[in-house]
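Box S2. Input/output pair 1.
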Amino acid sequence: MATTNKKPIHKIKVGSVQADIWEQTPEKGDVFYTLTFSRSYKKGDEWKTSHSFTQQHLDNLADAAIDAKEWMRQHRPSKAKAA
């Protein structure tokens, strides 16, 4: 990959689960999106982030994935943008 954005281009939050959508710009080829998931939780007075999920998080994870899939479909990078 030639470049990777330092910040996601879109965030989706469902409960404590967050889906971050990243735009990837390879040196050759078309621009495309990737997706990462995280969840936030509070330990004492401090907020933490995790990338693991328990069974109780799966509904929110699934909903975030569906919402991200729809966003990515609606915002497909055009081939002209990659040139």
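Box S3. Input/output pair 2.
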Amino acid sequence: MGPSRSIWPIARLMTAATGVDESSFHYRGWRVVLACFLMAFFMFGFGLYGQGVYLAELQRAHGWPGTLVSAASTFSFLLTSVLVIFTDDLLARIGLRSLILCGLSALGASTVLLALLQTPWQLYLAYALMSVGWTGMGTVVIATVLNSWFERRRGLALSLAYNGATCGGIVLVPLLLTLSGSIGFRSAMLAATIAMVVLVLPVVVIFIGWPDGTSRASGGTASGGGTTAPTQSRKALLANAAFWTMVLPIAIALLAQMGFIIHQVTFLEPLIGRASAGLAVTLMAAMAVVGRLSLGLFVDRLDPRLACAASMTSQAAALFVLVQSTSPTVLLVCCAVYGFSIGNMITFPPLIIQREIGASAFAAAMGLGTSISGIVSAFGPGIVGLVRSVTGDYTTAFAMCVLLDLVAAGIVLWRPGRRAKLAAS
């Protein structure tokens, strides 16, 4: 074991030994949570929820077909799923703060290019830069840095930081639409990009870092030290039962979740009208925030696998009732119940990984798991749409999602015969 491999675990033990109160507002880790919240706010706001705005505005401005713009989105998501695998290597080679600043620069360049682009190849370049932004500011980096700062309040810290993702959709997208209508899409994107840099850059520079001055991430080494450990960790993960019984159910549940979210308005509009369908989306997003906050208050005292299975089962129940009813009130309640667990699907993996796989391979496991679940879930909207086209309605398609959620809940409850901690070597 090289000396750089032992720095972070020892630092964490020393922090625990000093009696640091993670619940105290003065604990520096909560400043790190604020930085991660802002990172998630803009990364998800621009990189996920904002893509619906780009689709409409670019079609209007350039007359490009929707298939061209949506294909660029698919390209970006798939490229992101590949790049996040190497998060551990990047943390080891360039360091945490440098990786985040590279991600911020790439996302800023992407949104500026989206505002100024004139040709389709520039669109694909912008979306490629957005994928680099995901690598530097996405869920893997956020989970890895917060995992190093928190022990007893890790679940709450993750829930608060990841709520930035949902708030990005609730706040940034309507803001972009409003500004686009008043000052134009180009000016709206440039103004929002400036706001992102002004808000995120200072908190990253001031607050982001490893506790106790360490400069390494799990599975890597101190910045500047070369190692092949991340590759070895990924190979070991593929043979680790605890890893697969976490990744597969999350991937399956996210596939069903993405399928429902993308087709939600199309399903609801004929039943309750456009305005009520829009209200259902807003209600679901708001409940995702409530769900994260509620779970975050006590998730550190729960078994994350049991809580994850319960969340998947609640989504299955909500979808089952949804396809049985035409009552506007019942449909809205079902969307609210479904939304309560949406955000927690990305909160559970880091909690399970830390308990069962351990700190030495945390970043490698998060990167590989996020890649697998990202690729699998990308097919959700297409599969739901295909089943709907074949059967003529959404009943069978959403029944399939119910079954997938129940299968996922069953798998996540399966525990390997032995605790599969990866030893650092």
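Caption for Box S3: The two ends are 5 Å apart (CA to CA). Residues 1-18, 214-232, 418-425 have pLDDT under 50 and may be disordered.
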